[in-house]
Amino acid sequence: MLKHELRKKYKSLRANLTSSQISDLSMDLTNHVLQIPVWDFFYFHIFLTIEENKEIDTLPLITLLQGKDKHVVIPKTQKNYTLENFLLTDSTVIKKNKWGIPEPVDGITIPETKIDVVFVPLLAFDLQGNRVGYGKGFYDTFLRKCRDETIKIGLSLFGPEEEYITDVHDNDVQLDYCVTPEKIYAF
């Protein structure tokens, strides 16, 4: 399937979810993350939820990471479709940008080369580890700047597309894992 078709399909599927369903699915997904062998690492990058887009609630996962004394890193979008990454602390001020994305106003910058694990937002994924995001390329650009050994974990409310995503580009970065409320996919 083509990316634009998948975006339309999964935005529609999300639109039909209630807040309660998203909360329950997000908790199930968080519990599955515990099974992935990443707990010896220190710097974990995670996106903040855009509630209006009915995204996965990442707060339970952030709470889990903080409870395990991990350094939580959150992104801030830049004008050139890149991400700047900041350490999440008790004093971090969060504000929504023009797209409604919650972001840190400022803080302690963390370089991409320090990040061990990235939790990647997505709308859809296939069984080869290809993902479909919102189409701006923020995460593909960011992931190419990370170390080769950085672990990339997609978070999805839904299972994989059985058909492969047919319009994958050379710039698209594949996932190492994708976690859903039902199971973990390793690529």
Automatic annotation (TrEMBL):
The keyword Metal-binding applies. GO terms for molecular function: 5-formyltetrahydrofolate cyclo-ligase activity. It catalyses: (6S)-5-formyl-5,6,7,8-tetrahydrofolate + ATP = (6R)-5,10-methenyltetrahydrofolate + ADP + phosphate. The keyword ATP-binding applies. Its EC number is 6.3.3.2. Transmembrane segments: none annotated. Keywords: ATP-binding, Ligase, Magnesium, Metal-binding, Nucleotide-binding. It is an enzyme of class 6 (ligase). Pfam families: 5-FTHF_cyc-lig (PF01812). Belongs to the 5-formyltetrahydrofolate cyclo-ligase family. This is 5-formyltetrahydrofolate cyclo-ligase. It comes from Flagellimonas marina.
